[in-house]
Amino acid sequence: MSAPVAAAAPPAEPESESDVRKDHINKIVLSDEVQRAIEQVLQSSDPLDHPDFDPTDYVNQLFPNEQSLSNIDDVITKMEVDIGLIDDNIRSVVRGQVNTGENGRIALREAQQSITQLFGLITDIKSRAEQTEDMVKEITRDIKQLDSAKNNLTYAITTLNHLHMLVGGVENLKRLAERRQYGEVLNPLQAIIEVNQHFQQYSEIPQIQTLSSQVQQIQTELATQITEDFRHFFAPSAGGGQGRMTITQLKDACQVVSVLDKPVKRNILKWYINLQLQEYIQLFHENQDIAWLDKIDKRYAWVKRHLLDFEEKYGTIFPQDWEISERITVQFCAITREELTKIMARRRTEMDVKLLLFAIQKTANFEQLLDKRFQGSTLTEMKASAGGGEGPDDQKQPTFIDLIGQCFKAYLDIYTDSIDRSLAELIGQFVQQTPQQLLPKDGASVFPNCAELFVFY
Predict the structure, then answer these.
(1) Where is this chain compositionally biased, Low complexity type (predicted)?
(2) In whole angstroms, what is the distance from residue 198 CA to residue 160 CA?
(3) Dihedral, CA of residue 278, residue 283, residue 285 and residue 288, to nearest 10
(4) pLDDT by residue (tens digit) across 42-87?
């Protein structure tokens, strides 16, 4: 096989410096990454597309020998066709770029027109929003005026209703109070008192002052009338008064008293409790024999019987929150403490250890019974009214323990003196014994007198 035609060709003339510079300028050098990216996109097997394309090798491949030169015209024709196709592609790309620029300018103009239209729409919307806001302000201003008028009208109607209730209720209460229909007085009285408090802000109006004075007068009259009814019913000299009032009426009267001022209830309770303990004060007066310490248990037996009798006969009259039984008991304890203090001071010489211990024991048992029976709410109320509750000990729940027994503390020296005398007598007996009797027997380490001292203590 003969050598390739390209190798047999005469050597080319050396290129001029301008041609070399021109080829250098026209040659495009791409990086390896760009070449790999192009190969992945185009995926062409044409040697002309290879980055390491060598024209000499390519010509030698086309014409490997002299015989292959016979089809050189076909190769040239094919090359010209390829060149034409490439030129067409280049022209299409260039024209496409020209059209793209024109399309971009057209799109830009359209976008500018759209922005102008959008700005106009936004301006129109803003103008309409301002108009709507002004309209809403007008509407809300009218609504506020209507709402204020509604509130004023509602308040005026409520005030007129209260005024009507107050005017009509005063006359109605007067009639019910005169008939002593306390069960029907309760609800209107509560309503009128609340309405009267509502009208205190209009106390400068003469008519309101008159109505308020009438309400206060009715409360005063009711307090006086109910107090008299209680006195007529419970007082021993009431006579026919007991037939005029019933237990049901008194029960309703207690409910009315709970609505009235607190001093009314306090005065009735004070009078009634003193009435209940009048018999006790007379029976156990300090001049009576039954009042002495040896019969102190009779005091406690009396109050037990009296409480049972009271709760059976009149327990349903008073409300539960009045704690009448507990109040009677607390007052009984106070009176008993005072009476015992006076009688022990007057008859101190008659007291001995056995009598003192007997009284203390009976009193302690009675106080424990009371502490289990009652909750001590009355004691708490009395303590609060006395101004207690400041010290740490005042925070404890009051009890009945030592409520009466504190009167014996001043006389405990009788007990201690008796113990001292007994101990002195016992020691004197030990001193009089012989040394043989004092020493331990049979080698024991305990003195025989120790057992007697232990039993004594």
Answers:
(1) 1-10
(2) 12
(3) 170
(4) 667 777 777 677 788 878 877 888 777 788 888 888 888 888 888 8
CA angle 386, 392, 397 (to 5 degrees): 65
Give the pair of three-digit tokens for residue 36.
């790999």
Cβ-in-10-Å burial (0-12, 13-18, 19+) of 296 comes to buried
- Which residue in this structure is represented by tokens 């209680």? 230
Residue type, 394: D
The residue whose two tokens read 């005398």 is 421
Question: What digits encode the pLDDT tens for the residues 344-399?
Answer: 999 888 888 899 999 999 999 999 999 888 887 888 777 666 555 555 555 567 78
Residue 299 CA to residue 367 CA, distance in Å, equals 13
DSSP assignment letter at 293: G
Dihedral Cα 225, 229, 235, 240, nearest 10 deg: 120
Q: Encode burial over 274-290: b for 16+ CB neighbours within 10 A, e otherwise.
A: eebbeebeeebeeeeee
d(CA 442, CA 72): 157
The pTM is what?
0.60
Give me 363's structure tokens. Answer: 């009193």
Cβ-based neighbour number of residue 51 at 10 Å: 12
User: Are the C-beta atoms of residues 253 and 226 closer than 8 Å to each other?
Assistant: yes
Angle between helices 206-234 and 182-198 (to 10 degrees): 150
Q: Find tokens 């309503």 and name the residue.
A: 191
Helix residue ranges, H only, 284-411:
296-314, 324-346, 353-373, 377-385
Which tokens belong to 389? 């509750």
Q: Give the separation between CA 332 and CA 340, rounded to whole angstroms.
A: 12
SS3 label, residue 321: helix
Contact 255, 185 (CB under 8 A): no
DSSP conformational letter for 310: H
- Amino acid letter for position 90: I
Q: At what angle do helices 296-314 and 324-346 cross, to 10 degrees?
A: 160
CA proximity to 367, closest of 411, 407, 312: 407
Element (H, E) at 156: helix 72-178
**Is the Cβ–Cβ distance between 400 and 365 less than 8 Å?**
no
Tokens of 377: 């709410």
